[in-house]
Specification:
Elements lengths: L4 H20 L4 H11 L8 H13 L8
Length: about 70
Amino acid sequence: MMLTLRERLVTRISAGAKIVRRVIGAPDYEAYVEHFRSCHPEAEPLTRDRFVRERMEARYSRPGSRCC
């Protein structure tokens, strides 16, 4: 099955965005949900907003853990 130009473009943009998020240290919500559903099927995962807020709070609440 051939992918359309639009589908290939969306795939490449998604992959690029994932790399950029990984480089800048942004949390990956999709990976979190995938892990959460496979390991904790009985519970409800956090919303995207709540997940990002908690990850950023955890990251910046340790002042000695950054270089800047």
